[in-house]
TrEMBL record:
EC top class, as a word: lyase
GO biological process, one term: 'de novo' UMP biosynthetic process
Any one GO MF annotation of this record: orotidine-5'-phosphate decarboxylase activity
EC numbers on record: 4.1.1.23
Organism (species): Lentinula aciculospora
Gene3D superfamilies documented for this protein: Aldolase class I (3.20.20.70)
SMART domains given in the database record: OMPdecase (SM00934)
Designated name of the protein: Orotidine 5'-phosphate decarboxylase
Keywords, alphabetical: Decarboxylase, Lyase, Pyrimidine biosynthesis
Amino acid sequence: MMASFLRQTYGQRIHNHNNPAAKLLLETMERKKTNLAVSVDVTKSKDFLAIIDAVGPFVCLIKTHVDIIEDFDQLLIKQLQDFSVKHDFVIFEDRKFADIGNTVALQYSSGVHKIASWSHITNAHPVPGPSIISGLSSIGLPLGRGLLLLTEMSTKGTLAVGSYTEEAVRMARAHRDFVIGFIAQRSMQGIGIQADTVDGDDFLVLTPGVGLDAKGDSMGQQYRTPRQVILESGCDVIIVGRGIYGKDPSFVDGIRVQAKRYMEAGWEAYQERVSS
Ligand code: 5IU
């Protein structure tokens, strides 16, 4: 029998982790009773901040793509951090690093965005091999940051399948201090190890490609429901973007209603999972 973390509560799972960012995320989920993360993919600071202030009470985490913001400056980061304290959420810059160790260390620490200085969590493609983890870890670990590896994607025709996914999970197991989990479409428990082996590694799985109304978009995105993601596939966090802020980022009342709706759907699926 495989030791299953899927029936443990988020609160119980805090003790399975040593990394401060992993602990912070689980503590936040337990405290606020939400497994909803909102992905804020907008190009203007004003919209970015308005969405975050509106969804803040309902989320455990805000996912950013700061490189798409046209009027980016360091003040925006200060405002994001202030909201993170006010609303009690974790910050995840979805940078998807993919270069050699030396380069990703510079991209993570330096440049315009200085991601390591403010983002609790970031992520990387495993395609370069373990050196990408050591490069990022040299910057992030001393700051108490955590890394997610992208082992699967939500897009049609993704190449992140099969042995690629398995090797990526093995890479993560060898770097438990810094790798706290995965961006994936299902639980990675037991992946890449023999079927009769007990998998004692409790990794967090954050899952994009979540929508209650649409099945996808015109550019290859595919959506599943919070129930499919949390209950049927054993993921831990639902990441929702356009399903919540739609086409009009300035309509904050509508955004609040949607955020609450996704939060409730995600939490209900989790409660069903831990009580099953
Ligand atoms: N994202 C995906 N799928 C993936 C990965 C990342 O959608 O497999 I890895 C990102 C892209 C976008 C967000 O920032 O998650 C989803 O936004 P929508 O909910 O608006 O589709």
